[in-house]
Write a structure and sequence with these properties.
The complex is a heterodimer of chains A (377) and B (177).
Chain A: E1 18-23, E2 35-41, E3 44-51, H1 59-63, H2 68-76, H3 83-98, H4 104-133, H5 136-157, H6 179-201, H7 205-211, H8 219-225, H9 230-233, H10 241-244, H11 265-288, E4 308-315, E5 320-327, E6 335-339, H12 341-346, H13 349-353, H14 358-368, H15 372-376
Antiparallel strand pairs in A: 1-2, 2-3, 4-5, 5-6
Chain B: H1 11-18, H2 21-39, E1 69-71, H3 87-91, E2 97-108, E3 111-124, H4 133-137, E4 143-145, E5 160-161, H5 163-168
Antiparallel strand pairs in B: 1-4, 2-3, 3-5
Classes of the chains: A mainly alpha (377), B alpha+beta (177).
Amino acid sequence: MHQVEVATTQETLLDNPEMILNMGPQHPSTHGVLRIILRLDGETVIDLDCDIGYLHRGMEKIAEHRLYPMIAPYWDRLDYIAAVSNGLVWVETVEQMLGLEVPPRAHYIRTILTELNRIASHLLWLATHGLDIGSFTVLLWALREREEILKIFEQQFGARLTCHAWRIGGMPSDTYADFEKDVQRFVDNFPARLAEYETLLSENRIWLGRTVGIGVISAADAIAIGLSGPALRGSGVAWDIRKSRPYAAYADMDFDVPVGENGDTYDRYLVRLEEMRQSRRIVQQALTNLPDGPVNAKLPKIIKPPVGDYYHSIEGPKGEIGCYLVSDGTSRPHRVRVRPPCLINLQALRQMCIGHLVADVVAIIGTLDIVLGEIDR
Amino acid sequence: MPLVNVPQPTWKEKLKRFFMIDLLEGMRLTLKFNVGALTDKNSVTGKGIYTEQYPKVRPNVAPRFHGAPRLNMDPETHESLCIACNLCALACPEDCIDVIPMDIEIMTAGKARKKKVLDEFIFDTSRCMFCALCQEACPTACLELTQEFELATYSRAGFVWDREMLEQGRETRKFEA
């Protein structure tokens, strides 16, 4: 008789409670092509690691081989949701390096349109974040309002998403005929729309269950990681470059910087909603005080910033977006370095996710509001 | 779990939750919107339809829209406005424009003079990012990005537009509304 040996003491696959789960890159909730490798115990996240670079286009290297005015369209393709804000970083960096005085009208129009872009970006965030968590109506309604802003962009810049909005020294052209009317109509209609989102979400028990206490990050940790934008302000740190280092026409504007208390997903949602209200206030003020005059500064024929380096950053919808520019005195930059808010905000993902469920990972990616075009560059 | 202290609901909030006030509020809002949408007479076609009927009804894009490129002609003489100065090709970040000039002899005031005119113009729309820097560089308002936005073709070669295509425009299939 042959005896069959049964290995009873050996560990089998079923004895090990840990599991490796691959999420993405082709996952709708990763807002692009982000691959997350999760280590799970049951449904709880023990550890995770991100794999990025699927959208790398080498924009910083491309910029070394282009003339200064040619680089602006590439900036639109970093954070394509907020192309107008991104374009502003580049032109302001070069302008300040050249020491150009931009006319006040251009500054005011830049303020109006970047704030509209912030609202558009936050609306898209609200739409996709709502969809991830399971609120479909918000997706449709938020995109409806975003459409109004994109129509203004199309009339003004000739494109809806990658606008190529600004030129060094000013703007490609003055505002179109109905610009003020269109912006005023949006400003008038917007508060009622925001109130609708609040009715749908702010007290909804499903929304509260999915966001309150999820993805908590303390103020000290947020500063240590280097978070910026609403992700930082949700933790209670009132840091806003529009206030601390005003650019464009923000020094003349009156607005508040909303902050959260707990640093969880719900607080960041409230902060972004309040930011949209403040943005609307800024647009209204800038529109009322819109000065007349030229929109372009006098430019040299060939743009050659002096030898040296310069760093300038603005408060983008996602956080501090900056440009570090090294010039060697020729017509092409020696080095262009982007300070990407999304990449640095993404570093908080591991700390925020550990201990939560897999379904919450989706909510936390949503609340960080990342755009992979900017992370990978 | 790193959770924050979630405040305990008061009895009033508990009562609200029991009667599902939070959910009913949202449902009331969406229902109101649906009734409004169905009874609205000012929708796109007057039939309560909001969807754009795309191939039949084409959207009106903005006058400044950056779409398909075109080489403009002089409306009177029907000659190309292009002076083959190559500024558009120099302004293009993606290097997708090729201007090929040729020299012709013309008689001015009884003397034979050489003049540079446009022979061939190649525009690679597959690499174009529609930034309109070429349009701004053009000194004679010849090269223009038009409101035409249907650029799809069946082959890669179809994206490369030559002078004839740039001057005449591409034929697009129109649908009856």
